[in-house]
Design brief:
By secondary structure, the chain is α+β, with helices and mostly antiparallel strands. The chain has one domain. The protein is built from 1 helix and 6 strands, in the order βββββαβ. Strands 1, 4, 5 and 6 form a 4-stranded mixed beta sheet that branches. A hairpin with a 2-residue loop joins β2 and β3. The longest helix has 13 residues.
Length: 87
């Protein structure tokens, strides 16, 4: 998902990390794999086209198939990253 142009980061849901998947030995913030589908929570770059970027992430995750990412896939844009300061 981070390879999709316009995605700045995965959004964990705050200091308590409400959105995450726990895998052996690690935690993947911003992604929740559940029996009823996959939730992906994003922070987009300030210049990103929100709809096009969300659709691209949806296609990328859905292409992984239900064995990896339970269907349906729900993409949530949680925030827009501040633009980088100009030098």
């Amino acid at each position: 998902m981070l390879a999709v142009p316009g995605v700045a980061a995965l959004h964990s849901g705050g200091p308590l990390g409400g959105v995450a998947t726990f895998l052996p030995g690690r935690r993947v913030a911003g992604v929740a794999l559940r029996e009823d589908g996959t939730q992906v929570h994003l922070v987009l770059e300030s210049t990103a086209d929100v709809r096009a970027t969300a659709e691209a992430v949806h296609r990328a995750v859905a292409a992984l198939g239900p064995a990896v990412a339970p269907q349906p896939v729900h993409v949530h844009v949680e925030d827009i990253a501040a633009p980088a300061p100009r030098a």
